[in-house]
Write a structure and sequence with these properties.
The chain has twelve helices and 15 strands. It has 410 residues and is α/β, with parallel strands linked by helices. Strand 3, helix 3 (90-105) and strand 4 (114-119) form a beta-alpha-beta unit. Helix 1 crosses helix 3 (90-105), helix 3 packs across helix 12 and helix 10 crosses helix 12.
């Protein structure tokens, strides 16, 4: 494989961005559509046949010698969050492209066909919903839900589909059959600091964490900050702060299981320096791969809500926003990735993914695995996000070796 060619791929794809800091290539926009068309040309130049399905997923296929055998697939996404870096999602697509180019360069034949998939709308930044393309492909997309989705400019998902030559009413036709796939694997940047700190080249993902999310309302009484004695106050901010700290403490007690808890939204009313806060609104995200551990953190949140209400005389309630189940990667694929790393002398770590990926939808559909390459300083969803070309090429070599084992090189 060619390092300079891989570097050029990243440089060229990074040109497809809207104005603003970093990469701004939101799902189903004209900019993202132009990037997809660019990628289609690159796949075709590498000898692959390409089609776009009813959800906007791009599927590039390298034919095997026995067409009826199930395919060995890989891929990721090229849409971004606002002010993104160059590597989230795109690493899995461009590394896969380089793998396909190398097979064409060497005229390597395989028994099974291979596919590279660019999944549509992996990020939730535009419509508030993530992994729409892989949900559609795996038959997990709720049509009623998609009809309600609107971006910050009031454009509906249906309108965005029409602008891309798609019909939202036909998105169910993107679903594929399980027997079409032998395996799906996704390469991704880690989006965390573990591989870099452990000086490891590859993370073999064992499971993908899933969040349970809550909205917490803390109601107090607005009072004058100068005339209300401290022991007469019903301060909603301080009550919310106690609850947030309780979430942190409960998650710290679950370090062994890697469960995390985050209060990502914390707003107060009326928001004046000389007024005791009367209300606090909080959004809480608790996620992990161990459901029992995650439940313990949820229980700690529920306990804190009750205790803070009683101790401070506040009106506190919580509503569940969403709840998803953790997804285990296929044990056979996990072990095969480890074997590939051992054969190549590559240092690897088995680890969970704290972020969601298209692989979690594919895992409910076919044998699925995932590998990470390092992220400098653990940064992601950030213009400073960085993974070196050498690290990406190492990932490409491992991915290629795995896919050739699965597709059976002739």
């Amino acid at each position: 494989m060619k390092l300079d060619r891989l570097r050029q791929s990243f440089e060229e794809l990074a040109k497809f961005t809207d104005e603003g800091e970093g990469i701004n290539r939101l799902a189903y926009t004209e900019t993202e559509r132009n990037a997809r068309e660019y990628m289609i040309r690159q796949f075709e130049d590498a000898g692959l046949t390409v089609r776009t399905d009813y959800a906007g997923n791009v599927i590039a296929r390298r034919e095997g010698m026995t067409a009826e055998l199930p395919v060995v697939a890989t891929g990721s996404h090229i849409d971004s969050v606002y002010a993104a870096g160059e590597f989230d999602g795109t690493a899995g697509v461009l590394v896969a492209l380089e793998v396909m180019r190398s097979l064409e360069d060497e005229n390597i034949k395989t028994e099974h066909s291979m596919e590279v998939i660019i999944f549509a709308c992996e990020e939730s930044s535009r419509f508030g919903a993530s992994t729409l393309g892989s949900k559609a492909m795996s038959g997990r997309l709720d049509p009623a839900y998609t009809r309600s989705l609107t971006d910050r400019n009031g454009i509906t998902l249906m309108q965005a589909f029409e602008e891309n030559g798609l019909d939202l009413e036909e998105v169910h036709l993107a679903m594929r059959f399980q027997d079409e796939f032998k395996a799906f694997v996704e390469l991704h940047i880690e989006q965390g600091p573990v591989l870099e700190k452990q000086n490891a080249s590859i993370g073999v993902v064992s499971a993908i964490a899933a969040p349970v999310r809550f909205h917490v309302h803390v109601g107090g009484t607005a009072d004058h900050s100068g005339t209300t004695p401290m022991d007469y106050r019903h301060d909603a901010l301080l009550g919310g702060a106690e609850i947030a700290l309780a979430v942190e403490q409960a998650a710290l007690e679950e370090l062994e299981y890697g469960t995390v808890g985050t209060v990502g939204v914390f707003s107060i009313k009326p928001g004046a320096m000389n007024v005791v806060p009367s209300a606090t609104e909080m959004d809480v995200d608790i996620r992990g791969t161990n459901t029992e551990s995650r439940h313990r953190v949820v229980s700690a949140l529920e306990k804190a809500v009750k205790e803070v209400a009683e101790a401070r005389g506040l009106d506190v309630w919580m509503d569940a926003i969403s709840s998803e189940e953790p997804v285990q990667m296929d044990a056979g694929i996990v072990n095969e990735f480890k074997a590939v790393c051992e054969e190549r002398g590559v240092k690897w770590l088995e680890m969970p993914s704290g972020a969601g990926h298209d692989a979690m939808n594919m895992a409910a559909f076919c044998p699925t695995g995932m590998i990470f390459v390092p992220s400098k300083d653990g940064l992601s969803h950030n213009p400073a996000e960085y993974t070196s070309m050498e690290e990406l090429l190492e990932g490409a070599e491992v991915l290629r070796a795995f896919m050739l084992r699965q597709a059976k090189m002739i």
